[in-house]
Design a protein that fits this description.
The protein is of the alpha/beta class. It contains 11 helices and 24 strands.
Length: 463
Amino acid sequence: MATKRARKTQNQSSTIPVDRISKLPDPVIHHILSFLPTVDVVRLSILAKRWRRIWYSIPSLSFSDSDFSINDRKLFYKFVDECLRIRKTSMRFISDSVVTSFKLDIRYYGGSVRFDKWLSFAVKSKIQELELKMKPKCTNFAYCCLPGDVLKASSLVDVKLTCLKLEASFAISLPSLKSLSLASVELSDKVLHDVLLGCPSLEKLVLKECFDFVNLQISSSSLLFLEIISFEKCRRIQVEAINLQSFLYDAEFTRGIGPIGLIVNLTTCRKIRNLSLSYAFWIEEKSLEDLILGLPLLESLALHKCYNLRRIKIISQGLLCFTFNKFYSVDVEASIEAPNLVFFSYKGDRKFSLSLNSQNLLECKIIVQEWSNDHDLNWYINFIDFLSTLNCSKNLSLHVYSQEALIFPEVLRRICRSPCPHVKHLKIKTRRRMGRESALRYASQWISPSLETLSIEQWKYYV
């Protein structure tokens, strides 16, 4: 009986919930709670006195009106006001009550007095991270203008702004700022120029779907990473950043449609190591060749659906990775002289002719975007020719719509050489299975007779 009673007591005690989080050290709890919206942190603070004390010293504040119903806008404003009042008071009496991060995501209905008051608290708290998103209530509604105090906050290190307007009739001073991201922000060429002048430590700049740019000039000796995404009206982009290491241009949002004659000048950026161009209709064969020749340190190159590239010639001693995503239904010829290339990726249809000279190639990834099972002999012959250019790689990944694309007819296997005799590791992914996996394995041995490993998988989604 005593044994049974002991077992019963043990089983009951094992089902009692245990609060393990409260036993963690304060710094660990601070770190965990810093990822939560402030409204959830406040809710947790009512659990115990210790949690209430911890809420007073969480270093990040994150507010979003989406945490409240659409009819509770005034309640949200009151909540933010009260939180900032409590934190302001706690900072006077609790030594570790500091705020280093301030995030605000709201729909803007006009007026800025309350908004300016919130940001004044953030700036006076000497925050290091600021993230603001103020989407207007309708498309033709004016953007809220960022208070000038923010542009003179010496403590800021990382700033992300979305759906705001920047004006500057004064000297901008952000000496500690290292990362600046502007998305759907209204600012002129001059304002951006003034911002960059006031950011001597800036290392990363992201400009996404901003407007009012005409002749954009980006000048910074400290800048290392630059991303320009979807500009419609800008006619010239001049980048003067002698230490720039990474440049990304992406006009996918506008499908590359922009002002005719857009000019992008990177001639002074000779230290670029990573270059990515997407829907860059301004780049042509000769300008691409000259650009690459002017980048002696280039290691990674990505070209995505650049319509005017029909005959690509790449000569680069240091290039290690090359990714090419072809524009739809356009015949493209590519000649690549990159002796140190270790990775090559292609995505597109078969209207692609490749001449590849690289003895150090380790891995190739090929995604054939053709959604048909109607493959004639000419289709297979052209595909064999294409695969033969990848023979210098020991690792090959082939993504096709159906298994039929790789089950070469017996007549061709008798008269043609294996296209990839040096490939030792082959990975095949198909979107559509047709129940012929044994035939596919047999065909794979013909494609690469030196195979050591073979992987066949089905993609849930084909891209």
